[in-house]
Specification:
Elements (H helix, E strand, L loop, with lengths): L2 E5 L3 H14 L4 E6 L2 H11 L3 E5 L7 H11 L4 E6 L3 H10 L2 E4 L4 H17 L9 H12 L12 E6 L2 E6 L3 E7 L2 E6 L2 E5 L3 H5 L7 E5 L2 E4 L3 E6 L5 E5 L5 E4 L11
Parallel strand pairs: 1-2, 1-3, 3-4, 4-5
Antiparallel strand pairs: 6-7, 8-9, 8-12, 9-10, 11-12, 13-14, 14-15
Length: 260
């Protein structure tokens, strides 16, 4: 049976895609439904699905980053992006020969994508169904040049509790954020402070060029990283500038550190 992972941060759109897929591909098993890039990458690594439907804009890791990391975590997984980008971006997808669905997703367009995926699966062996990382790199460049007028400005400062005091902390001064139940710990050179919001809420407002999620419970400031090493299990270890502790990078997330 063909298995799929779906990643879409908007619950109604995610449920709509699930229902459309049930109609268009009745024997498709949906192994996981995810609401952010980190959980999508974990699900792809765990389930090794035949196909992953990835929203491009998600909290934390975006769809392109998930697809790039999935090339190592599950190389046989075919990627279908769901996107609200305009025609210029669609041209880029066409040139890269990567499947996409333009939101709102139409039944006829989804049926064509399903047929294309089934035809490829029938005509190619699993060891040739690999993610085209070169095409992904091209998409990173081309989509990065498109205007993003609807994107919010990245967070520049936060307020955090430290005992009875409330501190104002510049985001650039945070070495990393760590999940702590439904709250988040911000670690700075002055010690730790508690944010009264879950780590997932931070993912959508932090600067994605500066902060990267390296574990489901950890977001790190790239400028705070001194080195990245891989242990025998394939997981990574981050050493930080000016701090004694190390941070664990989940195995699927190690692909994000290629070239560092």
């Amino acid at each position: 049976m063909t298995r799929a992972v779906i990643a879409e941060d908007e619950a109604l759109l995610r449920q709509s895609l699930v229902e459309l897929l049930h109609d268009a591909w009745p024997d498709l098993e949906i192994a996981a439904e995810c609401e952010d890039g980190a959980s999508a990458l974990d699900a792809i690594a765990e389930h090794q699905p035949d196909v992953a439907f990835l929203d491009i804009r998600m909290p934390g890791l975006n769809g392109l980053e998930v697809a790039s990391a999935a090339a190592s975590a599950s190389p046989a997984t075919r990627i279908v992006f769901t996107t609200a980008y305009d025609q210029y971006a669609i041209d880029a997808f066409d040139r890269g020969a990567i499947d996409y669905l333009l939101k709102p997703i139409e039944r006829e367009r989804l049926a064509a994508t399903v047929q294309r995926l089934q035809d490829r699966a029938a005509n190619e062996s699993s060891d040739t169904a690999t993610i085209d990382t070169e095409a992904l790199a091209t998409l990173f460049r081309q989509l990065g040049e498109l205007p993003r007028t609807d994107a919010p400005q990245p967070l520049t400062w936060i307020t955090a509790s430290n005992g009875r005091d409330t501190r104002l902390i510049m985001v650039d001064d945070v070495a990393y954020f760590r999940a702590d139940n439904k709250y988040t710990v911000a670690m700075t050179a002055d010690g730790e402070a508690l944010l009264r919001k879950p780590i997932r809420e931070l993912l959508g407002v932090l600067d994605p060029t500066r902060f990267k999620q390296v574990h489901r419970s950890t977001i790190v400031n790239l400028k705070a990283i001194a080195s990245v090493t891989r242990d025998d299990t394939g997981k990574g270890v981050l050493r930080l500038k000016g701090r004694p502790e190390t941070l664990t990078v989940s195995q699927p997330f190690m692909a994000l550190f290629r070239g560092m």
